[in-house]
TrEMBL record:
Designated name of the protein: AMP nucleosidase
SUPFAM superfamilies reported in the protein's UniProt record: MCP/YpsA-like, Metallo-hydrolase/oxidoreductase
Presence of keyword Hydrolase: yes
Organism: Novipirellula rosea
Matches recorded under InterPro entries: Beta_Casp, LOG, LOG_fam, MBL, Metallo-B-lactamas, RibonucZ/Hydroxyglut_hydro, RMMBL
């Protein structure tokens, strides 16, 4: 068993590690490097061949953790990519945006070089293209927090909330080899406590080895007062001068956090009534993902939404998508607030807004996040009076300011408190994801305070796990806990004397369940009277209507100009190796070749196989999912997808937009679809509606029972039963549905 450190080693960005165990290789993160001195690593081939990696697991969706995934796939990786469900959704948006930014930057740089009559040392091409991103997204699989997942034989990964961004995770990796068992904990990026929108980070009791971030390992966050009070002062000061407030943000989390704080100030009338722009197609899409995954957000955010003060939508906010909309912002004559990626000013639209404002003394450039060494943001914060943007030198006349307390990373005290919860020392702690000075400072702090064995690996360093003995982690005992901590004093003096400050910790619960969802209440008949929710939650009716309207819009657009579509049902638990999975894939590929759109529940198993078949045939592939705490994410083969809150809304979409049903073998859910179809046929709700039961070995006994028992008792009639066709051959199924549905369309037209 060994680990190779391939990124974010004695620097902040480019997180990437290779763990070899059980005869397999798994990669943890695959991030893009953003520091100028190490940019060449983005272009270099991975030191460990991509084709030799069996699986890739991701901690969260920031580009310095996922930004090289499409290149990794293009270089030969063919395994599956595992991440939390919000991370999968965010990665889709962020990687597509990354490919777009790279293409735009490459075109701009080529034009500039032609204009200047020079040639760079390397060919100017993007790292990867939209097509590379599409191939990568197909490999993603979504998981939930606290669900152990065996990603390859002998290696099980559990994702725990890291409190950094939506869907961020610490990884608890359990390795079971014939001669020993070890648990390796990857902290991921750890967040602060009491941050807006998201939950607090998870603590752990034990680990054999810990790979831990050290971004702020040498310092604590500066306490400059309440974030809202800082923003009030800066916004008012800038608008009084007649300038614009330019805020570089990360499209994930920091943009939404700023919207959260500005929303509160707008609702309280604490800042002037000025236009607020979020200039980023990606941030727009990310914000919608936040709205979609409300069950993953903290209780305070949910309460704000219920009080009709949604933190991600408020008066005065404009979210721009197109280039023309972005350009028009700089023609705005009156003071305004402009937020745009990238957060370190190293790419994207923020550079254009800086060009328009950096020489204006009345404007303010406000930094709200970490600025890595060598980035434009770091140079501006360091006080440089002249900087280069898009190949031209600009004097820095705008006011440069920074808001403190917004960092998405735990500071030195927070990192030490995270380690302080361990009940016994790990065998070794590896510090990564921090500048060399930060990592080395944190190493000294940990050794002084806890006496742990600590290493700060260099890029390319390999560590072999040769120790013997039992694991420090008891697999039968809970290891992760959610905690509420009180602030503690942690001064350099306490380290100097070797006295470890103790942390006041209250354990809320082990493996906390998701926050109670009022929209699931109606499933439990023992809890409330059926009508009570109307009095206690008047917004539910609006949410139902919104669910339905959004579903209608998405389905109508996806099926525009098409009358041939079928809905597919079947077990979500069937793996790719199962014959029914293969049958579903082949059947829907044949249907797709005949022009049928395929509509599924969007999850794994039969649904994945069906959407995959439609995509292989170049036909529309649509997934309708349910937002539940442990529901699988939309599978990566859906061209159009929709996640709703209510089962009956999805049922309505199936019945309204499909012209026939295919039901494959499965469990109780499959029987549910079968009998619901029969009920709809009996009541005339599905007029002339064909239903194919695929797989005679599974379905024939059930149909025989209907004909010999239920039919004889008069509960159904022969015409109802005849509407079900038991079939096995994909080509025969496609041909029969083609004839039936074409005949229906012809009769409708006449």
């Amino acid at each position: 068993m060994k680990i190779t450190f391939l990124g974010a080693n004695r620097n902040v960005t480019g997180s990437r590690y290779c763990l070899e165990a059980c005869g397999k290789r798994i990669m943890i993160d695959c991030g893009m490097v953003q520091e100028r001195d190490f940019l060449s690593r983005n272009w270099d081939a991975c030191p460990i061949p991509a084709g030799s990696i069996d699986a890739l697991v991701l901690t969260h969706a920031h580009i310095d953790h996922i930004g090289l995934v499409p290149k990794f796939v293009a270089d030969g990786f063919r395994g599956r990519i595992f991440a939390t469900r919000p991370t999968v959704a965010l990665a889709d948006v962020m990687l597509k945006d990354s490919a777009k930014i790279q293409a735009e930057d490459a075109r701009y740089k080529r034009r500039r070089h032609r204009k200047e009559g020079r040639t760079g040392p390397h060919e100017i091409v993007p790292l990867y293209t939209d097509k590379d991103v599409e191939k990568a997204i197909e490999l993603f699989r979504g998981v939930d927090y606290r669900v152990a997942t065996e990603i390859v034989s002998g290696i099980t990964v559990t994702w725990h909330d890291a409190g950094h961004i939506l869907g961020s995770a610490s990884l608890e990796i359990r390795v079971q080899e014939p001669d020993r068992e070890r648990t390796i904990l990857f902290s991921g990026d750890l967040g602060q406590h009491d941050k807006p929108l998201i939950h607090d980070p998870t603590y752990f009791r034990r680990a054999d080895y810990v790979v831990m971030e050290s971004t702020y390992g040498d310092r604590d966050h500066e306490a400059r007062g309440n974030v809202e009070e800082q923003l009030i002062t800066i916004v008012n000061d800038t608008t009084k001068r007649g300038g614009n407030l330019i805020i570089p943000v990360f499209a994930v989390e920091r943009a939404q956090e700023m919207m959260y704080f500005l929303s509160r100030l707008v609702h309280k009338n604490r800042i002037p009534d000025v236009p607020i722009f979020l200039d980023s197609p990606m941030a727009y899409d990310v914000t919608n993902i936040f709205r979609r995954f409300t069950s993953w957000l903290d209780d305070e955010t949910v309460r704000a939404v219920e009080c009709d003060e949604p933190p991600l939508h408020f008066p005065g906010l404009t979210m721009t998508r197109t280039v023309d909309e972005s350009k028009s912002i700089n023609h705005h004559k009156k003071p305004c607030i402009i937020m745009a990626p990238a957060g370190m000013c190293n790419a994207g639209r923020i550079k254009h807004h800086l060009r328009s404002n950096i020489r204006r003394p009345e404007s303010t450039i406000l930094f709200v996040g970490f600025q890595a060494e060598g980035t434009l943001g770091r140079r501006l914060l360091a006080g440089e009076k002249e900087v280069r943007i898009h190949g031209r030198q600009y004097s820095v006349d705008a006011k440069i300011q920074q808001v403190f307390g917004l960092s998405g990373h735990a500071d030195r005290t927070g990192l030490l408190q995270w380690l302080n919860h361990f009940e016994q020392p790990p065998r070794k702690v590896f510090l990564t994801h921090g500048e060399e000075s930060s990592a080395l400072a944190l190493k000294r702090s940990i050794q002084t305070r806890f006496g742990f064995d600590v290493s700060v690996p260099s890029y390319g360093e390999v560590h072999e796990f040769n120790d013997q003995g039992p694991s420090l982690v008891d697999a039968g005992q809970p290891n992760a806990v959610a905690v509420k901590r009180d602030a503690i004093s942690d001064t350099p003096e306490s380290e100097a004397t070797g006295d470890a400050a103790t942390e006041s910790v209250k354990v809320d619960e082990i493996f906390p369940v998701a926050a109670e969802d009022p929209d699931l209440e109606f499933l439990d008949s023992a809890t409330r009277r059926p009508i009570s929710f109307l009095h206690e939650d008047p917004w539910r009716v609006l949410r139902i209507q919104s669910d339905l309207i959004q579903g209608i819009e998405i389905m109508t657009r996806a099926l525009e100009g098409r009358h041939r579509s079928v809905a597919v049902f079947g077990s979500a638990r069937l793996p790719e190796s199962d014959p029914s999975y293969q049958l579903a894939h082949q059947t829907c590929q044949r249907l797709g070749e005949r022009g049928f759109a395929i509509i599924t529940g969007g999850g794994p198993g039969i649904m994945e196989a069906s959407n995959r078949g439609a995509r292989d045939a170049g036909s529309p592939s649509i997934g309708l999912n349910i937002e539940l705490p442990h529901e699988q994410t939309i599978n990566p083969y859906c061209d159009a997808s929709y996640t709703c809150r209510y089962f009956f809304v999805r049922k309505m979409m199936f019945a309204k937009y499909a012209r026939g049903f295919l039901i494959f073998p499965g469990g109780f859910g499959t029987f549910d679809e079968f009998f619901e179809s029969l009920t709809l046929i009996q009541t005339g709700k599905l007029a002339q509606f064909p239903v194919v039961l695929v797989g005679s070995e599974f379905w024939r006994p059930i149909v025989d029972w209907l004909q010999t028992t239920v039919l004889e008792k008069g509960c159904i009639d022969s015409q109802d039963v005849q509407r079900f066709r038991v079939m096995d051959d994909p080509e025969e199924i496609a041909r029969w549905l083609d004839q039936i549905i074409d005949g229906q369309s012809a009769s409708t037209k006449t």
